[in-house]
Amino acid sequence: TAMASDEPKAKKPKLSEDEKTDSNSLFGMGNPLLDICAVVDKDFLDKYSLKPNDQILAEDKHKALFDELVKKFKVEYHAGGATQNSIKIAQWMIQEPHKVGTFFGCIGKDKFGEILQQKAAEAHVDAHYYEQDQEPTGTCAACITGDNRSLVANLAAANCYKKEKHLDLEENWELVEKAKVYYIAGFFLTVSLESILKVAKHASEKNKLFCMNLSAPFICQFFKDNLMQVMPYIDVLFGNESEAAAFAKEQDFETKDIKEIAKKAQALTKVNTKRQRIVVFTQGKDETIMAHSFLSGLVQEKPLDQCVRAAHYSANVIIRRAGCTFPEKPDFK
């Protein structure tokens, strides 16, 4: 509606205490990794039998890859890990207050671990790492060719997360209880199913929002038993088109239509019947499929279409930059 020019501009209403987003209201748990990013050539991909666009766990045949990447190509180091990145982006979109996002994961007592701690603090994320000295901090090689990137994760310390050594500690569990929204990438299913189930059951019992990402085709294929143990607690399920296809194949959905896959995933058994599951499948530059939000919007209780717009905006900003980095403030209305 047009306003007469002499009318005073409406002041932005101050948020009441109820409407403010509290600190620690978003909780994430996952694999904190230091990304080692480089533009490589096809020979390098072929040498280590990597697909141009994929995400895999490092095997013995990939051990030399990390050293060769650093020696042969110009590398950049960025704080990474799928869940940790998502929590950082949600914090960036929300801006104030700081420490809306909490993150748990396991690192080593080393230089890379210190970098991850420093980067989490700079992003105003409240990271509480379980630190151990058996394994070094995990890394992820991001091998870039053209528009594609092949990710090879050497979990190392990230694989050493222990429920009884960290999640169960009173001061840590209190942070879990403070949260309203929970987000865990499917990648963490390879590390600590018992930790995920403890958080998922808490969310379900308290009617809070539990979100999970399929993360990679290999999770849907080789960790499907773990995934399906968590599925009844998932309120919002995220994935992309290749993960959706792998999930449908493993679950015998007998369809390749992404909208049908979303509907079938949405209809799977659910423990907390007060919330209908929402399924969100992204398709790169093509439309996002949503069966009936993304983290910063969900934490602030925004309508779903606005959540999707916020996600598209932040993805659009971040895809243009090296690593999971962003400008000082978002320009999102």
TrEMBL record:
Q: How is the cofactor bound?
A: Binds 3 Mg(2+) ions per subunit.
Q: In the record, which residues are listed under signal peptide?
A: none
InterPro entries in the cross-refs? Adenokinase (IPR001805), PfkB_dom (IPR011611), Ribokinase-like (IPR029056)
Q: Does the keyword Transmembrane helix apply?
A: no
Q: Name one GO molecular function term.
A: ATP binding
One GO biological process from the UniProt record? AMP salvage
Residue intervals of the Carbohydrate kinase PfkB domain: 45-291
Write the record's keywords in alphabetical order, separated by commas: ATP-binding, Kinase, Magnesium, Nucleotide-binding, Nucleus, Purine salvage, Transferase
What highest taxon heads this organism's lineage? Answer: Eukaryota
* EC number in record: 2.7.1.20
Disordered, as annotated region: 1-23
Pathway the protein takes part in: Purine metabolism; AMP biosynthesis via salvage pathway; AMP from adenosine: step 1/1
Main location per the UniProt record = nucleus
Which cofactors does this gene product need?
Mg(2+)
The record's Gene3D superfamilies line, in alphabetical order, gives: 3.30.1110.10, 3.40.1190.20
- Gene Ontology annotations for the cellular component aspect, listed alphabetically: cytosol; nucleus
> For this protein, what reaction is catalysed?
adenosine + ATP = AMP + ADP + H(+)
- Tell me the compartments it is located in: Nucleus
Query: Could you confirm whether the keyword Glycoprotein appears in this record?
Result: no
Q: Compositionally biased, Basic and acidic residues: which spans?
A: 1-22
Family, per entry: Belongs to the carbohydrate kinase PfkB family.
Oligomeric and partner information: Monomer.
Q: What does this protein do?
A: ATP dependent phosphorylation of adenosine and other related nucleoside analogs to monophosphate derivatives.
Please identify the protein, giving its name as recorded: Adenosine kinase
Biological source species: Poecilia reticulata (Guppy)
